[in-house]
């Protein structure tokens, strides 16, 4: 566990926490030294889509780190009390000003080394009314041959696009489940 993910204080009483194995558990958890609360940490769920329009894909050029200035699909963390599809629709609107419809499950990608799970869906753009959101410098439609492959922000997005174009060539879109490893190379 690195310092960035280290919890220091209890969210219930404010006292310091320590990493210990609770009785009956099999792994270390943050435990409050004062009130005894056990703080469980779980992977973050990232949701996103592959917005399609007449054979082209909408990509967003990132305005924030990591990957500042590089291209990605509209995706982000699922919020509390939000369904997967609500999160996908919100992220498309926030990052690309895009309204998406006809969401179809496409891939579940595990990034266990950073405790993230990506759920990616195929989607159709409702219209051509899209524009950069506050996290994007630009948004643009790309055909397969025009995708800026060397400027894709994240290996998980690169792999999602690779799977999509491979499936599109056959016209069959199975649901993919894949582990992305830290050694994944673009």
Could you please describe the fold and organization of this structure?
The chain is α+β, with helices and mostly antiparallel strands and 186 residues long. It folds into 2 domains: 37 residues, Ubiquitin Ligase Nedd4, Chain: W, CATH 2.20.70.10; 136 residues, Alpha-Beta Complex (Nucleoside Triphosphate Pyrophosphohydrolase). It contains 2 helices and 11 strands; from the N terminus they run βββββββαβββαβ. The strands form 2 sheets. Strands 4, 5, 6, 7, 8, 9, 10 and 11 form an 8-stranded mixed sheet that branches. The longest helix has 16 residues. The model has no long low-confidence stretch (mean pLDDT 94).
Task: Summarize, please.
The protein is an alpha+beta fold and 186 residues long.
Give descriptors for this structure:
alpha+beta, Ubiquitin Ligase Nedd4, Chain: W, Nucleoside Triphosphate Pyrophosphohydrolase, eight-stranded mixed β-sheet, three-stranded antiparallel β-sheet, 2 helices, 11 strands, 16% helix, elongated
Give me the count of strands.
11
Number of domain modules: 2
CATH class category name of the largest domain:
Alpha Beta
Compute the number of helices.
2
CATH fold group of the largest domain? Nucleoside Triphosphate Pyrophosphohydrolase
For this structure, what is the CATH homologous superfamily of the largest domain? Answer: Nucleoside Triphosphate Pyrophosphohydrolase
State which percent range the strand residues make up. Answer: 25-35%
Major pleated sheet: 8 strands, mixed
List the helices and strands and how they pair.
Blueprint: E1 17-20, E2 29-32, E3 38-39, E4 44-53, E5 56-62, E6 71-72, E7 75-77, H1 84-96, E8 100-111, E9 116-125, E10 136-142, H2 155-170, E11 176-179
Parallel strand pairs: 4-9, 8-11
Antiparallel strand pairs: 1-2, 2-3, 4-5, 4-7, 5-6, 5-10, 8-9
